[in-house]
Amino acid sequence: MKYIIFLRAINVGGNRKIKMADLKAALQSEGYLNITTYIQSGNIIAEREESDHEIIQTEIEALIKKHFGFDVPAVAFNVSEYEEVLKRNPFDGDKLMVHFLDRIPEQAMINKLEQLSLDHQDKSSHAGRFLYISLNAGVSDSLFSNKFVEKVLQVRATARNWNTVLKMVDKANGK
C-alpha cells in the first residue's frame, strides 16, 4: 500500500536535522519501498504491505528514534484517504493550511476548538483526520498553531500549506 507520511518539525531552525538521503536509506533498511521525499521538511511517499496507518506511524517514529536518535511524531495516510483532503476542502483560494491529525479527535474536543476560534479572523473546518485553516492573517499570526491544535484536540498533528498538499498528491500519483 502506498502512504503519504508527514514528519513534524524536522530541519526547522537547525534542530532535529535529518538529510532526506539518510531518511530514505533508513526507510529502505526497514523494508519501505519506492520512497520519494519532497523538500526538506519531512514529506514522504513510500510503500509498505501494512494496511493500518497507526502501525505505519508507530513504525516511522521508532525508525527515526533508532536511526537518528530523537523523537519525531509521524502522521500517515494511505493515498486514497489522503486524496480526500482535496475533496473535503471547504474553502476557496489557496491561502490554506491543513493540519494532519494522527487520529480522529473526540467530538467534544472539536466543539471546544470551534468555541475557542469563534471570534478569530482565520476560519477552521474539521473533516476526519484533517483540520483545514483558511488564513486571513498569515501563518505566523494564526491562532491555529500546531501547538494550539494539539493541545485543544488532544491529538498529534503536523501542518502543511496548500501548495505542499497538492504537490504530495501529484507526486503520489507519479506526476
From TrEMBL:
Family matches, as InterPro entries: DUF1697
Pfam families the record matches: DUF1697
Domain of life: Bacteria
SUPFAM superfamilies, alphabetized: SP0830-like (SSF160379)
PANTHER family registered for this protein in UniProt: BLL4334 PROTEIN (PTHR36439), DUF1697 DOMAIN-CONTAINING PROTEIN (PTHR36439:SF1)
Protein name listed in UniProt: DUF1697 domain-containing protein
